[in-house]
Design the sequence.
């Protein structure tokens, strides 16, 4: 569950980055349309909330929230590294990581 | 007007950051390592590396206690957990005739400790495991006696609630007696509960008695980060407290100064001089901003009793002892009644520990880490279990950083016993506990601990880049032939305080392996090496040009850290190939993190060496000029 929390936070940050001029240009060239900007912002925040919910589900409120902030720090550091040195891999990771981390949770349903 | 405000904030940020920045860097670096201090201590005691946790650990401990201390009034077994690979047993001996006194005696001791520190939750330190981490050569240790009512402390009060009082913080009384021996033999300081207490460290598989070398281990770095070293305790706490306050000012003024940080959240542009330093400073600041605010604010709270001693007197009046005494007396009264009732049921042989441990683990969803047995073998004997960690922030960390809940069993029947109630907490007290918990991160499981560590690394880099930025900014602005004295002094101190501290920490670890094991006052020599090396590194830039000094010190630190796995392999039989095969991740982690740190320091040295200064073409804003010029204006 904490793995999925990491990957949804990553997806969330990527969506937020796609809503920004500079980072949109780094990841997929060009400026985002106003629609893409809005979708990126809303989607990004929704992913963040999902990530928080997963942390709380796994560890309870107080420690879950602590985990979430730690997750955000770790994931954002990773994204900065990728944006600086490997911007091409970002989209690929943003899509595949949530899928990979969701697989172990399937037996729960 | 707005510009004026931003500029004044920028000024405040620059100077509040600079003046105490060197100290704050040291606090951040050592404090970050302190998140893994038990692991560091374990690495520094290779005599313990052969111990592998086994399911029989509890029985091994029990068997040893039965054979060496059958008459003891209380037994403690510390089980292996994810931060400890050994079994540590300790026992209390009790003189006849003291028992009747115990409640009172205990109260008095307790209150004396309270006095030293104001509120228990607000002061920052000692853990029970410091005591338990045997640091001395002598296998069986007697905790300093000398207090005739001390042994009475061992019985009932020791087991309930009292530990919480005793262990969550440094023991003022003992600290004065152990004086300058602070970071070493912590069991002396560990304090009140330790009187008349003896302990042994056992191999968790074979039960063999282990004798670790004398070392202050991770505890030295831990204590240094809030009490420095060899200074009177109050002075040191004041100094660090003021630095913490400066940090808080720097964070707030920094958010205002670099208001673009949220917009440029993900941006890092390497090898562009001031721009890159600023990016790195901003990124590490924003990424871990919740951590920075939390750690600074909670750090201030932990110093409340030092910085604002009036708080305690406002609540508890002129005689806080009386208030605590009344509270404890009520709890002990209740506890004594329960025990008296148990004693009437008669004694008997003790039930096996296995089912009790299993029951607790099922209930807590985490294994128990400590077993307390009072009055073993006598009527009224009880067994108490403590979980490995708390499952909520609002609980104070229990003794030794373990959880603060207990599960109590009748030792003769294995039935659950209800002992006392939970102490109620006001909202403010709960917030205080939560912030204290967050600062110390004792509730954190290994995964979360790594995230705390990562945030701490971010803070350390933020301090270092901030210090460098102060200098780079002025150098690029001035373009003077010869820098003014003050600027050169800052550059000089930056080298010694940043790169030099890395060298000193690495040297501390090397000293641990290279100093003879039987050297007298060995643990102090390790610390001496740390300070001697650091002093040399602080003087070093006097002899070398600044750039060369940076490169050389980072290279030395890089080499020392990167070679730590090899040093470990050369001096012990627990090198990486063995520890990985056995799954001893604490030792593996130390070796690998050290090596990676070393390589990163090397890389830093390499980049400084080959840095040609800002290139003209690169300095021109290329993309998003509006954003960049705004950032420049924000400087």
Sequence:
């Amino acid at each position: 569950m904490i793995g999925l929390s990491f990957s949804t936070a990553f997806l969330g940050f990527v969506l937020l980055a796609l809503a920004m001029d500079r980072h949109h240009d780094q990841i997929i060239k060009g400026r985002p349309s106003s629609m893409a900007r809005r979708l990126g912002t809303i989607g990004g925040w929704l992913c963040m909330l999902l990530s928080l919910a997963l942390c709380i589900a796994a560890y309870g409120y107080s420690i879950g929230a602590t985990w979430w902030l730690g997750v955000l720090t770790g994931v954002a550091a990773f994204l900065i590294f990728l944006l600086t040195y490997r911007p091409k891999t970002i989209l690929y990771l943003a899509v595949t990581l949530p899928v990979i981390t969701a697989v172990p949770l399937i037996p729960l349903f | 007007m707005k510009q004026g405000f931003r500029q004044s904030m920028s000024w405040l940020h620059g100077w509040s950051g600079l003046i105490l920045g060197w100290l704050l860097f040291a606090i951040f670096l050592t404090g970050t390592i302190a998140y893994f201090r038990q692991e560091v201590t374990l690495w520094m005691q290779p005599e313990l590396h052969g111990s592998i946790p086994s399911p029989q650990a509890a029985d091994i401990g029990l068997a040893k206690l039965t054979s060496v201390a059958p008459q003891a009034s209380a037994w403690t077994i510390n089980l292996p957990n994810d931060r400890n690979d050994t079994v540590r047993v300790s026992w209390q001996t009790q003189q006849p005739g003291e028992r009747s006194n115990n409640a009172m005696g205990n109260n008095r001791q307790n209150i004396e400790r309270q006095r030293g520190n104001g509120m228990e939750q607000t002061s920052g330190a000692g853990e029970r495991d410091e005591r338990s981490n045997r640091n001395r050569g002598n296998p069986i240790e007697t905790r300093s006696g000398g207090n005739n009512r001390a042994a009475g402390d061992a019985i009932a009060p020791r087991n309930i609630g009292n530990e919480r009082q005793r262990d969550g913080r440094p023991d003022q009384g003992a600290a004065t007696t152990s004086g300058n021996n602070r970071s070493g033999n912590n069991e002396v300081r560990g304090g009140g509960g330790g009187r008349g207490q003896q302990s042994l460290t056992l191999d968790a598989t074979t039960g063999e008695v282990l004798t670790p070398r004398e070392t202050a281990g991770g505890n030295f770095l831990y204590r240094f980060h809030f009490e420095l070293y060899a200074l009177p305790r109050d002075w040191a706490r004041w100094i660090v407290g003021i630095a913490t306050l400066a940090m808080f000012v720097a964070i707030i003024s920094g958010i205002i100064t670099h208001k673009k940080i949220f917009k440029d959240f993900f941006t890092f542009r390497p090898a562009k001089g001031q721009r890159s330093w600023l990016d790195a400073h901003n990124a590490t600041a924003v990424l871990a901003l919740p951590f920075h605010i939390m750690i600074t604010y909670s750090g201030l709270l932990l110093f409340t009793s030092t910085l604002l001693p009036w708080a305690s007197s406002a609540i508890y009046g002129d005689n806080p002892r009386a208030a605590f005494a009344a509270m404890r007396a009520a709890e002990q009264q209740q506890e004594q009644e329960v025990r008296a009732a148990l004693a009437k049921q008669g004694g008997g042989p003790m039930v096996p520990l296995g089912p009790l441990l299993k029951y607790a683990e099922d209930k807590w969803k985490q294994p128990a880490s400590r077993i307390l047995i009072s009055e073993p073998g006598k009527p009224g004997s009880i067994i108490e279990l403590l979980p490995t960690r708390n499952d909520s922030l609002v609980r104070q960390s229990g003794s030794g950083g373990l959880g603060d809940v207990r599960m109590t069993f009748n030792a003769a029947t294995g039935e659950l016993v209800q002992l006392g109630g939970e102490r109620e907490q006001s909202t403010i007290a709960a917030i205080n506990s939560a912030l204290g918990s967050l600062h110390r991160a004792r509730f954190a499981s290994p995964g979360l601990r790594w995230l705390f560590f990562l945030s701490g690394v971010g803070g350390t880099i933020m301090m270092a880049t901030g210090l460098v930025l102060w200098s780079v900014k002025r150098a690029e602005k001035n373009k003077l032939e010869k820098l003014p004295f003050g600027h050169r002094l800052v550059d000089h101190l930056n080298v010694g305080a940043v790169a030099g501290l890395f060298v000193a920490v690495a040297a501390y670890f090397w000293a641990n392996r290279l100093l003879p094991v039987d050297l007298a006052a060995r643990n102090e020599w390790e610390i001496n090496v740390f300070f001697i090396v650091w002093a040399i590194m602080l003087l070093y830039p006097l002899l070398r040009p600044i750039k060369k000094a940076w490169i050389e010190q980072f290279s030395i630190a890089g080499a020392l850290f990167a070679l730590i796995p090899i040093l470990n392999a050369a001096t012990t039989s627990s090198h990486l190939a063995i520890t990985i095969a056995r799954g001893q991740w604490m030792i593996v982690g130390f070796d690998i993190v050290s090596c990676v740190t070393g390589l990163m320091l090397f890389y830093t040295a390499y980049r400084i060496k080959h840095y040609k200064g800002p290139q003209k073409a690169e300095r021109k804003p290329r993309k998003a000029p509006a954003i960049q010029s705004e950032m420049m204006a924000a400087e």
In short: The radius of gyration of chain A is 14 Å.
